[in-house]
Amino acid sequence: MKIIILGAGQVGSILAEHLSVEHEVTIIDERSDVLENLQSAHDLQSLQGNGSSPKILREAGANDADLLIAVTANDDTNMIACQIAYTLFHIPTRVARIRNRDYVREREALFNNQVLPIDHIILPEILLTHQITQLIEYPGALEMAHFGENQLSIVSLNAYYGGLLVGFPIAKLQEFLPHTQTKILSIVRGETVIIPQPSTVIEAEDEVFFISKTSDIKAVMSQLARLENLPKRIMIAGSTDISYNLAKALENQMNVKLIVKNHECAINFEEQLKKTLVLEGNAADKKLLFEEQIDAVDYFLALSDDDEANIMASLLAKKMGAKKTLAVVKRAVYLDLIQESTIDLIISPQQSAISSILSWVRQGDISQVASFNQGLLEALEITAHGDFDSSQVVGRHINELKLPQGVVIAGIIRNDNAIIVEDDTVIEKKDKVIIFFNDVKKIGDVEKLFQVSGDFI
């Protein structure tokens, strides 16, 4: 597939890195130094210039491109580029990231072939709201993705001293959870990714990735980490759409306070939020946090557009007694610096956008892609087609498959039934197979494994 990516920011760069392994990728940006670094590290082409320029797009090979991904920092550039790609170059599929709230509100009327021809819109604020809501629902989880219409879930969490399974080999898991199906998929220990074996011993502070039925998530988490109660008191900092959306989603179930700097925004939010206490002020103001009893808050969420403000407010809230803190951080350099800080959860909007885009790009009958650990790990859901003769997977036991190192068949959705696979599980036609990758470079090999030979349709 021939792919043109507009924008070499964090999302564009990670997409280029992932996709260039199996596809012909050209990335366009106005910063020559960023492009040089990308081209020297990966097998791709780069072009300096304005991504919405017909001349630049033509030079990038738009005449015979299969896919345009517009993820520049400017919504207008992304939309214009998709229009030009459709009108001048007839690029079959166009994906754009849109963040402006005015465009987002009118998206159903705006984004279609009669108005603005964008096939798939990436809405970071909506994706992020959903992600944070999930993490609040499952306190202790670090990352989470649902598959098979929410029947199976992949979850990561930090194992802790005293966890029932900590210090024991993975083979003991079934003894601890005799009535629960689950499978350990990966262990991240420091900077090392460990591919689990039955003899692998889980250590405290390991980041453990597991799959289970969604209804069993908390049962599995209880064996690895402290089982925490659902939060009752939430404090949100930020004047963003994410702040408003989360307050609205949570205010009927929890006690929510929302701190905003902007006076006009505070009035607007106060009018629209029925049960949320809206406070005008600075979330890094010690006096304000003390007066609002930060030490009684179960979850402090820093959701402004300013990375530094989010980091400082979260650190201060934690120091003053907030039980858990979460900060939205966009810049990759900050993500690396604060991994060892006292902030409990660090969320990257780019990660959600990358997962959404990859779901559209992956070849074959792939219905969902989830990216974890800043893009180092990945999972996907793919449908098995064919029969024993035309397929390399249908009719075969899991342990018979020629899987690349680090690839784990995690689960199957079969006729609306969720299955955690064993070595002797047989893949059947039309199974939706959930696959976990400890090495994202092996995705192309697995896609080929699931391809059907001959003329089977």
* Number of domain units: 4
Walk across the major sheet and give the strand order: 3-2-1-4-5-6
**Structure annotation, total helices:** 16
> Helix proportion of residues, in percent?
25-40%
Proportion of beta-strand residues: 25-35%
Q: Say how many strands there are.
A: 22
Largest sheet: 6 strands, parallel
Morphology: globular
CATH class of the largest domain: Alpha Beta
What is the CATH topology classification name of the largest domain?
Answer: Rossmann fold
Give unreliable regions as ranges: none
Q: How would you name the CATH homologous superfamily of the largest domain?
A: NAD(P)-binding Rossmann-like Domain
Task: Give a short overview.
This protein has helices at residues 10-19, 32-41, 54-59, 75-87, 101-105, 107-110, 124-137, 173-176, 217-224, 241-250, 263-272, 286-291, 307-319, 332-337, 349-361, 443-449, and strands at residues 2-6, 24-29, 45-48, 67-70, 93-97, 120-122, 141-147, 152-158, 182-189, 192-194, 207-213, 233-237, 255-260, 277-280, 299-302, 324-328, 345-347, 366-372, 377-383, 407-414, 417-420, 432-437. The chain is of the alpha/beta class and 457 residues long. The chain starts with a strand and ends in an 8-residue tail after the last helix.
Q: Which properties best describe this structure?
A:
single chain, 457 residues, alpha/beta, Rossmann fold, Alpha-Beta Plaits, six-stranded parallel sheet, 16 helices, 30% helix, 26% strand, globular
